[in-house]
Amino acid sequence: MSIKLREWREDDAPVVFRAFQAADMRRQSPWPILSVQDAAGWIAAWEGVGHAFAVTLDDQVVGNVAVSGIDGHDNGWVSYWTVEEARGRGVAAAATSDLAAWAFRERGLYRLELGHRTNNPASCRVATKAGFRPEGIERGKLCYDGIRYDVERHARLATD
Ligand SMILES: CC(C)(COP(=O)(O)OP(=O)(O)OC[C@H]1O[C@@H](n2cnc3c(N)ncnc32)[C@H](O)[C@@H]1OP(=O)(O)O)[C@@H](O)C(=O)NCCC(=O)NCCS
């Protein structure tokens, strides 16, 4: 499997739009992605916020990995998603591992964190496979439609 990370481009908006039509993707954007224009806005909104990379498999865009929230302590926040058709093939884990290597090497970060709802076991596996160790449960951290969700925090250090 040959996956690569590259910068997002404006003309990736249609694939981003399609990706966000999956039921489990609705909460992965701060605003609903209801059109290709919204998807173009999602791509543009990364400017100045963090580093987001399109993940390609055989030159087709199949996902996103990003590091944002970089603070003065060289910590960053990692997120990822893959398109439904590409799931279960190790894409997210490999891309997240590549992102971490990039962030430590090129961006000089020391600690990368991520969190997943405890009812998202696939994301937990991705984090673990990408070398992000579990650090504990943040109780009731997220609230969607009036329901609170526990979140498991994972982190990977440059020295791990
Ligand atoms: C979570 C997500 C990124 C996984 O992407 P992916 O490309 O399928 O990930 P990978 O193939 O690298 O690994 C998935 C792992 O989860 C496992 N998995 C999938 N569904 C599972 C489930 N319901 N229960 C337990 N494990 C599950 C797979 O078996 C695989 O582990 P394995 O390699 O040990 O067999 C993808 O499902 C997604 O984009 N979901 C919606 C967005 C999201 O939840 N992002 C993360 C927010 S914290």
Low-confidence stretches: none
CATH architecture: 3-Layer(aba) Sandwich
Mean pLDDT level? 97
Distinct small molecules = coenzyme A
Examine the coordinates and then state which fold CATH places here, giving the name of the CATH topology: Aminopeptidase
Shape: globular
CATH class categorisation: Alpha Beta
How many β-strand runs?
7
Structural class: alpha+beta
Radius of gyration: 15 Å
How many domains is the backbone divided into?
1
Roughly how many Å apart are the termini? 25 Å
- CATH 4th-level superfamily: Gcn5-related N-acetyltransferase (GNAT)
Contiguous helical run count: 4
Report the portion of residues in β strands.
35-45%
The side-by-side strand order for the widest beta sheet comes to 1-2-3-4-5-7-6
Description of the molecule:
With 160 residues, the chain is α+β, with helices and mostly antiparallel strands. It has one domain (3-157): Gcn5-related N-acetyltransferase (GNAT) (Aminopeptidase, 3-Layer(aba) Sandwich), CATH 3.40.630.30. The chain is 25% helix and 38% strand. It contains four helices and seven strands, in the order E-H-H-E-E-E-H-E-H-E-E. It has helices at residues 13-19, 36-44, 91-105, 121-129; strands at residues 3-7, 50-57, 60-68, 75-82, 111-117, 133-144, 147-157. Strands 1-2-3-4-5-7-6 form a seven-stranded mixed beta sheet, with helices on both faces. Strand 6 and strand 7 (147-157) form a beta hairpin. Helix 1 crosses helix 2 (36-44) and helix 3 crosses helix 4. The longest helix has 15 residues, at 91-105. The chain is globular. The two termini are 25 Å apart. The mean pLDDT is 97. The structure holds coenzyme A (COA).
